[in-house]
Specification:
By secondary structure, the chain is mainly α. 70% of the residues lie in helices and 2% in strands. The protein is flat, with a radius of gyration of 22 Å.
Length: 167
């Protein structure tokens, strides 16, 4: 083997794209923040689970997901390592910001239905039937499950007309 062939040999080290590391770091940071914040709410009371138990569990799940994602990226061969599609990330973040902005105006059911239809039909190119079934279950079904099954209030529409028809 000559010196030139050694110098041109590809590196076999593992490399994770910087944009992926940012995503992993963001997941981990949100997980740590939620864990710390939920402890202040109280994890357990004399009557049972406290208001901070569920957020604590979700923070732990986020942190575990970040760790699993990092391990997956480190195990991936460096030749196939790709960065995150920034356009996709931007579109998802913008749609989440819009969802949060219109939630109090349109209510949970309608805003979540439109959000899910956008991501399932337009972004995910699913069929109309499957998109509608999943969007109805994820918006109206979740609303009724939380409101009537768990007694957790979700936002309703600020428009009187939408309120009269149950949105």
């Amino acid at each position: 083997m000559t010196t030139e062939s050694v110098m041109t040999k590809p590196q076999s080290g593992v490399r994770v794209a910087p944009s992926v590391l940012v995503g992993i770091g963001a997941f981990a940071a949100v997980g740590v923040y939620v864990l710390i914040s939920s402890v202040g709410l109280g994890l357990w009371t004399s009557l049972g689970p406290g208001p901070g138990l569920f957020p604590f569990a979700m923070g732990a799940v986020l942190l575990a997901m970040a760790a699993i994602w990092l391990v997956q990226e480190l195990r991936r061969p460096s030749e196939t390592a790709e960065g995150v599609d920034r356009r996709l990330v931007i579109e998802v973040v913008v749609s989440l910001v819009i969802l949060a902005a219109v939630m109090d105006l349109l209510g949970f059911q309608l805003s979540m239905f439109l959000f899910l239809i956008y991501h399932l039909k337009l972004r995910g190119r699913r069929t109309w039937v499957s998109s509608l079934i999943i969007a109805v279950a994820g918006s109206f079904g979740a609303f009724y499950a939380f409101t009537y099954g768990l007694n957790v209030s979700l936002p309703v529409s600020a428009f009187p007309l939408l309120n009269t028809i149950g949105l």
